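thoughts on these tokens:
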Amino acid sequence: MNRLPQWIKRITGASVGVSVFFAGVSMSNTGLGEDAAELSTVEFIDANIQQGYEDNEIRPSAVAGDDEWVRRVYLDIAGRIPTLEEVKQYLSDESPRKKTALIGELLDSQDYVRNFTTIWANNCIGRRTPRRVSRKGMEKFFREAFAKNRPWDEVVVDIVTGEGHFEENGAVNYTLAQMQMADEAVQLTAMTTKMFLGMQVQCTQCHNHPFNNWQQSQFWEFNSFFRQVRKIEHRKVDPETGRRVDDFSEVVTRDFSGPVFFEKRSGLMQVAFPIYQGTKVDPNAFDRRKEFGKLLVAADNGETPLIAKAFVNRVWGQFFGYGFTRPVDDMGPHNPASHPDVLERLAADFVSSEYDVKQLISWVANSVPYSLTSRFGDDNEIDNPSAGEMPLFSHMYIKSMQAEQLYDSLISATNAHKSGKGGWEAQESQRRRWMQQFVAAFDTDENDEATTFNGTIPQALMMMNSELINKAVNAERGSFLFETVTKPGKDAEKLQELYLAALSRRPSRSEIGKAQKLFSAYGRNGKLYAYQDLFWALLNSNEFICVH
């Protein structure tokens, strides 16, 4: 049956067999009736979101060109822009299935593993490693998880139930990072519900939720699962100085039974027992966290587990700039999803796939909405989530690069990554040394970590004159810029190389004309410096810094 909508045919030139789509609040609203259940996951995403366009009387933007899309997918999956050779290879590929093929290649790459390892290590312990926490151990845990494509439910259970040495079992570093203060596991409770359940229950620590039926007792019921957690910080004697120094940290389970006591705003003391979504756990259980782990992956009366919905929402937000809820970690009746059926279908299929992270990413990246250009017009200008509107995903929303994306993209743009020596640990050590400057420049006034390039004065200075930028535009013999500019060929060809390396696209006729004027101003003897200034300008442009 030809179910391909006319608008998809119009903007893609596609024929029967390409992804279909549709989106609404219920299956019946899609206009497909019983056929909706027969749609593949990607077809369902496309169909359901299309319904949103029709309901809001807008038309989606056109499909992005190959140059725009390839840069985007590299940044979202691999965490960097494509190299010059990679972008040339993709642009010259005439296969009709090259998008799907590239998505598969990226998901099988070490760059994917490193990118998602970085994302989730930052999510769990922050960029600035807290005291007595091992980033090496945390990254090792996630690196192995993403390299082996471990089911996400197993990964989460390992994180929230982990105990032992902080490098022998890297998962425990999440718990250690949340236990920097003696707060009776309050921070650990709040972070766990936000990160893995998509629920912000921290405000119910002191009072009932103002916008839904979450009660103060619910926070302390969650908290009681973590009251058996204890961290031990071991020290040793330094043989050279004779002083005691930090050795290692570990997480252990301690004796704790019975209820947790908390005070209501009225001053009345209450008790809370370990209860998850209405399911009670024996308060005398030997290890409440393990019981909590079992409940996380159990279907609640046939409903999709919250850890699946929370992860789907985060992945969607990572790829589109906005999740189905804003923020992505605040799901609940007070904050309805923009496309509840898409969220539910993706989460249900994610569970059916045995929590296959690569499969989930493939579904999202192969969808029609992800393929659309970031440019928009009169037909869909109301689709503007930054103005507080619900996202309709009728065009790609522009995002600023994460700090790590910016660093890795600067390396890729100059081919400097090829000069790295040693294995994973050696390369990561070098990367962390460079990132120290980036992280310092990304601080906020609240001593928090800004995650994106926001154009502050320290950030701008870092991009204009940091050691990394100076190396990136180095015109000395042997550098990428020198080799590109001094090889035989016309200036127009060399310009294409620089634009493809930095922006993954070829320069326009207008840009070529402006570059030629620049070369004339510098004269024949100064042409290398003209190219150097041009490359510097490209790397400092909004087009380079943004994901679009």
Remarks:
- The chain has three domains: 1-90+310-315+330-397, 112-297, 403-547.
- The longest helix spans residues 424-441.
- The two ends are 35 Å apart (CA to CA).
